[in-house]
Each structure stands twice: as C-alpha cells, then as structure tokens.
C-alpha cells in the first residue's frame, strides 16, 4: 500500500502516513474534515479561529498565573482606628503570621483561595497548541469547562472568605480591608470563568447543543466544588471563628446593656484555644494603638531614674522601657560605674506597680506620679555585684530627671 499524497510505502494497519501526515483511512479523513469544520477560516474577520484560539490560550494562561501569584501577595489590610497595622496574604492566612511577638495561627482551609487558581493554571497549560483531529477538539472543550468551573469557584470562594473574615473581625475594634492584589485575583478568576465558558459554549453550539447545556454544566460544576469548599471549612473549624465572634458581640452587648453581669461572662465557654489567642493579639494591638499597656494606663514614664536616697558613693541608676505587652525591660547601674550590673524583665502588676523576679529575688517598683517611684526588695541575692544590687533596691526613692533623658 502506498500513500496517495507522498507515494511512499505504508502498512495497511496505519491510519496516518508517518512521512507526510496524510490520513490513510476513510474514518481518519472524515475526522480531520470534521475538525476543519469546527475551526474553519473566516477571512472577513481578518483572522482564522485557530489564530483566535492561540490568543485565547495566552489570555487564559496569563490570567490563571496572575490569579495564583496574587495568593502570595497582600490580600487584606488589618487596621485599627484608621492606622494600618499589618497586611496578610493568602499564604499567611493558611500558615499563620507573627505580630508583636505573638503567633496568630493559620488555617489550612484558607489554602483554597489559591487552590482553584492553581487548578486553572494546570488546565490552561493542558490546552493543545495544534488541533489535528476531532478528539483534540472534544478534549479541548472538556478543558474549557474545567477552567471555567475553576475560575467561577475561585471567585465565589474569594467573596465568601472575605465575608467570613469581615465577620470574624467585627466588633473587635479592628477593621479588615481588601488590597489591590485581591481585586486582581478576582478579575483573573472572572476572566477564566467567562472566557472559557464562552469557548465551551461555542463548541457546544457547533454540535447543535444550546446554551442551557453549557450553563448547566458550568453551574453544576461550580456548585459541587463550592459544596466541597464548605465541607472543608466546616471540618477544619475555620467557620467557628466568625460564629464565635458573633456570639462574643452578642454577649458583650448584653453585658453593656445591663442584661448580664460582666463577671458572669465565661470566655472559656465562648472561645476555643485558637480564638482566645487571636482575642489576646487583638487586645494587644488595640492597646498599642491607644498607647496603653495590658494593665491599663500605666502611671510611670519610660527612661532613666536616679536614686535620691542611697548611700554615699553608690547612686542607683535604673532604666525602664515598656514593651507594650505588659512587660518592661529593666536595666540597673550605678552612676559611679560605667557598666550594667543587672538586666531583668519586669511585669506590670497594676497602674502604678512593676515587679521583677530575678531567681527568687523580688524587686518591686511603685510609682507615686509619672516621674517618682520607690523600689523595694524581697529575698537575698548572691554573686557578683549582689551587694550593690541589694543596696540600690532596698527601699530607695528614684526620680526621673531631664538630665539623663534627653533624646
């Protein structure tokens, strides 16, 4: 048997000539004729449908990649009293983020924000460069459906997750706003949904199928995917945060309206461990913005305090620096020496008192006003400079002077 196009000898079982690509069987020739009919040239439009298909492939690939990359960019901005505090990406929501020394736990369910754009990337790169036989077009139609469903589910998931986060931050004093990357991510997902859906419809139309079949297939696929998203959210506990926030807001309203005593509110019953840590972090952020510490509005000022009642030749000199989280860094010196003799972290007990525990040696500092405090001790201390430390912390009075606090 010889090829009718190139004249070379071919096997009877071959369907296509390996030398020139000419179909050898009637079935193969009909398949190629059908394929050409699907993507026939339309000269009056200036481009063939194959040219348009190439452009569509590029658009879909670019949109899918951009939507997926945006998952790793800042999607949300958290602010308090109009002050921007931190930006959060989809990856941060999934893995967690550290702020002010505290770890805000993530939830793997938020990875769904990036999953569907990623599926769109995979499907877009499966589109063939060249369409030869009818099976290529049928496979392409199936891929268009996949991309459209991924894009639609991605957009719907983004809108839903944004609503969940807004509810979770409601009544906390913090606000969450969307960033430009989230808008781009939504637009990319909508492009995937619309362009691929239209291409699938065009192919269905060639097969005499109406638009209802196309819309039904896409809507059904998006619905099934979104149900899976909801199941994952429920199983992962990501939905609990918003529900607990609403309960907390309701409880707080009852307390403020006098319907329930504040001491009757049991946070252990309302919040799980994940939500308690987030409430603590939110409280810390609010305190930092408002310029207060965890114990309230502390009376004392940061800076260097000098002893005004000590022994001759030993003048205590103490630096106080609040960390904004209810702790204070304390540095002890004496004016007659040029080095630190003790560095320890203290805890704010109330509005006027700081206490530090140095291996059982308790140092208590009490402020009478913003610049005057008295320091007392409990216990004994041994080791280098222990005598000096005990002397300058033994019921001594200290004053914050301008001379040592000029910066």
Topology readout:
Elements: H1 26-38, H2 49-70, E1 74-80, E2 83-89, H3 90-95, E3 97-99, E4 102-104, H4 112-124, H5 134-169, E5 174-178, H6 180-206, H7 211-236, H8 238-256, H9 267-270, H10 273-290, E6 303-307, E7 316-322, E8 327-334, E9 342-348, E10 353-358, E11 361-369, E12 372-378, H11 386-392, E13 396-400
Antiparallel strand pairs: 1-2, 1-5, 3-4, 6-7, 6-13, 7-8, 8-9, 9-10, 10-11, 11-12, 12-13
Helix pairs in contact: 1-5, 2-4, 2-6, 4-5, 5-6, 5-7, 5-8, 6-7
Structure description:
The chain has 407 residues and is of the alpha+beta class. It folds into two domains: 43-240, Butyryl-CoA Dehydrogenase, subunit A, domain 3; 303-404, Calycin beta-barrel core domain (Lipocalin). The chain has helices at residues 26-38, 49-70, 90-95, 112-124, 134-169, 180-206, 211-236, 238-256, 267-270, 273-290, 386-392; strands at 74-80, 83-89, 97-99, 102-104, 174-178, 303-307, 316-322, 327-334, 342-348, 353-358, 361-369, 372-378, 396-400. The strands form three sheets. The chain has an eight-stranded antiparallel beta barrel. Strands 2-1-5 form a three-stranded antiparallel beta sheet. Helix 4 (112-124) packs antiparallel against helix 5 (134-169). The longest helix has 36 residues, at 134-169. The protein is elongated and about 115 Å long. The chain starts with 25 loop residues before the first helix and ends in a 7-residue tail after the last strand.
